[in-house]
Design brief:
The chain contains 19 helices and 22 strands. With 671 residues, the chain is of the alpha+beta class. Strands 2-1-5-4-3 form a five-stranded antiparallel beta sheet. Strands 7-6-10-9-8 form a five-stranded antiparallel beta sheet. Helix 14 packs antiparallel against helix 15 and helix 17 runs antiparallel to helix 19. It is elongated.
């Protein structure tokens, strides 16, 4: 049987053992140990562990002694809540340390209760978390610098239509500009960090680029090539690309940067010219020189991209030198002879680079306003540029325009291409872009157009004489009733007419590209113009039935002759590409603010792949059914350009083997 005195000894031993364990736990901890009175007004014991000053006597000014003033309200609120709810006190806050510096601590205290459930004191610990808090702040600063670097790089590369990207050595994309993300139909989050296959490249295409990256790692030399690749919006396109090694400070390849340019139109143009007759061979040689200039421009742009890639690598490895890296980026832009500009949407602030001032003939230190820059644009192009910039601001659309500039001081005429678009960041809208000098390219185009115009005029003279002789012979032979010779002369007359139409088409293209086609805007009734087209069709078209729907009075402000050419061209095309005896319907329907003209045939139709390119210059639909139809693919291109210069719209709808409908719209006159 256990005596009461034995129980007392057992309780005393248990208490002694618990106290020993507690002292051992406290001694083993690196945390600050303290105790507080029940209402936290008095700190009774403090083992500062070298972090805070030790306290062996009760103190009442512990709050002002250890806690900065800006933290006291938050700490007191946590104390009040812990006392009220009788729960554990826990809060992170700044604290004055023993060496008079301040740091961060995680303070935690538990309440001690008596037998009645009342709090008698608080026992707590405080852990030094200064290094962790500093690390968190440094991480936030690094992330902010990284985002800033990305915004700087996007400001430069986002204004170019070329595709710019960077691979790591495991073939993953670490950067892609907005043009490339648009081509993929992806966002930054869904594309960056993924490889070629994951971004939609076909296996053969991905393997080809991976082999090229391996070769660049081995040789440290750039690689250039050409490849077809599906665009998310435009369909299959042809691209010229160059891959460049990015070297670290030890000369080792640490990434591969690339730039890709869409050369689909250039390839189509080359293929069309290759099929032209021997009479246009001289023009092909002139165009080949233009292509060489474009290739040189690609090389120059590739060198600029290489500089940009090097600057990007410097930004990624030296966030603490971000301002110096930005200066290096500006130097890279200057090395590429690109001028940059910024226009504020609300304040119209106009900021330009020194290179842009040079293009406009100003001195580097001169202040240049947007009005002063506009005044240096050639008078023939000034209003057009103003209207396009104004439209880009209003519609928040992309700007891409070519125009000549007359230097302010030197009087030198330079051709430039300006590319820009609206940006939105930090709640502000602004327009930013780049300028690139294209004087040599435009001079080549002018020489080409002059050549085409000269050849066209020279060819028209003998054709006109030939047509006159044929018509005279036809008049005389019809009296002799020689059916064979009459038929042959009629076919010759038709061929001369076709050749004349083709020459006129080339001449119009030359005038269009050189800006010599004048649009004479006057108000007229579109219904009367369509009535004239109906009378002409009834007199000249005997192989098809052309049905004109009734048209009410429709007033438009346009060039009557040019719109008549468009209507005539669309009806002629319908006759060419639909079987004899079929019906062609012509209608004009107006809505609230525009007139819509439709020409519908029952012909062979157009495949979807061809439909998207049908209005491109020199584009012709290829196939067995079209091989016998003459032409160089410039009629619909001219129609498109004429309608575009009237601020209208032209389009086509088609179903294979059932027919096509070609339509255009014009703004109605504002009464």
């Amino acid at each position: 049987m256990i005596r009461p005195s034995d129980n007392a000894k057992i309780d005393e031993n248990a208490i002694t053992s618990s106290e020993a364990r507690l002292r051992a736990l406290v001694a083993a901890s690196s945390d600050v140990i303290y105790s507080m009175s029940a209402d936290w007004s008095e700190m009774r014991e403090l083992d500062g562990r070298g972090i805070l000053s030790d306290t062996d006597k009760p103190i009442t000014d512990w709050m002002s002694k250890y806690i900065p003033e800006q933290e006291r309200g938050r700490v007191q609120a946590a104390i009040d809540e812990a006392i009220s709810l009788k729960k554990v006190f826990q809060v992170e806050h700044r604290v004055f340390r023993a060496d008079a510096s301040w740091g961060w601590t995680l303070s935690r205290a538990i309440p001690i209760f008596n037998e009645h459930g009342a709090i008698t004191e608080w026992f707590g610990t405080a852990a030094d978390i200064t290094e962790r808090k500093r690390a968190e702040q440094e991480l936030r600063d690094a992330k902010e610098q990284s985002e800033h670097q990305k915004r700087v790089y996007e400001t430069i590369t986002g204004s170019t239509p070329d595709l710019i990207y960077v691979f790591d050595l495991d073939y993953r994309f670490t950067y892609a500009n907005s043009a490339l993300l648009t081509m993929w139909g992806k966002t930054w989050e869904t594309a960056i960090g993924r490889n070629l296959l994951e971004n939609g490249y076909e296996p053969w295409h991905a393997e080809m680029h991976e082999r090229e990256i391996d070769e660049i790692k081995l040789t440290k030399q750039p690689i250039r090539g050409e490849v077809s690749f599906p665009h998310a919006i435009l369909g299959k396109r042809v691209y010229d690309y160059i891959l460049i090694p990015v070297l670290d400070e030890y000369g080792q390849v640490e990434a591969v940067a690339g730039t890709t340019r869409d050369v689909t139109e250039r390839k189509q143009w080359e293929e069309s010219l290759a099929q032209s007759s021997e009479q246009l061979q001289a023009m092909n040689e002139e165009l080949a020189a233009t292509n060489e200039e474009q290739a040189a421009s690609n090389e120059e742009l590739a060198a600029t991209i290489e500089e940009l890639a090097m600057v990007n690598q410097q930004l990624q490895t030296a966030h603490h030198k971000i301002e110096g890296a930005e200066e290096s980026l500006r130097m890279a832009i200057d090395a590429g002879r690109l001028g940059t500009f910024y226009i504020g949407s609300s304040d119209q602030l106009f900021v330009t680079s020194a290179r842009l001032k040079e293009f406009f003939g100003f001195l580097p230190k001169e202040e240049v306003s947007s009005e002063a820059a506009l005044n240096q644009i050639h008078p023939d192009y000034r209003q057009e540029v103003f209207d396009m910039v104004k439209s880009a601001f209003a519609r928040r659309s992309r700007l891409d325009i070519e125009c000549p500039i007359i230097g302010h001081h030197d009087g030198k005429t330079r051709w430039v291409r300006a590319i820009g678009e609206m940006q939105h960041r930090d709640g502000n809208d602004y327009f930013t872009g780049v300028l690139h000098e294209i004087t040599e390219k435009k001079q080549d185009e002018i020489r080409k157009n002059d050549f085409i115009g000269m050849v066209s005029h020279e060819l028209k003279t003998p054709l006109t004489s030939m047509k006159g002789y044929i018509q005279v012979l036809l008049m005389k032979l019809r009296q002799q009733d020689d059916g064979f010779v009459i038929g042959a002369l009629e076919k010759a007359n038709a061929q001369v007419a076709k050749m004349t139409n083709m020459i006129n088409g080339f001449l119009n293209v030359s005038r269009l590209e050189s800006g010599k086609i004048h649009i004479d805007l006057k108000e007229f009734d579109l219904a009367l113009l369509i009535k004239e087209a109906e009378e002409e069709s009834l007199a000249t078209i005997t192989s098809h039935t052309v049905v004109f729907e009734p048209v009410e009075t429709t007033l438009v402000n346009a060039d009557r002759d040019k719109i008549g050419q468009v209507i005539h061209n669309l009806i002629s095309n319908a006759v060419k590409y639909s079987p004899p005896g079929s019906t062609i319907n012509v209608a004009c329907i107006s809505d609230l603010n525009k007139a819509n003209v439709h020409v519908k045939d029952q012909g062979m139709g157009i495949k979807p792949d061809d439909l998207s390119k049908i209005f491109d210059r020199y584009y012709r639909v290829e196939g067995n059914q079209t091989s016998s139809v003459s032409g160089f693919g410039i009629g619909l291109y001219l129609c498109s350009e004429i309608i575009d210069r009237h601020h209208g719209k032209i389009w086509a709808e088609s179903e294979v083997d059932k027919g096509s409908t070609f339509s255009f719209s014009l703004p109605l006159s504002q009464v």
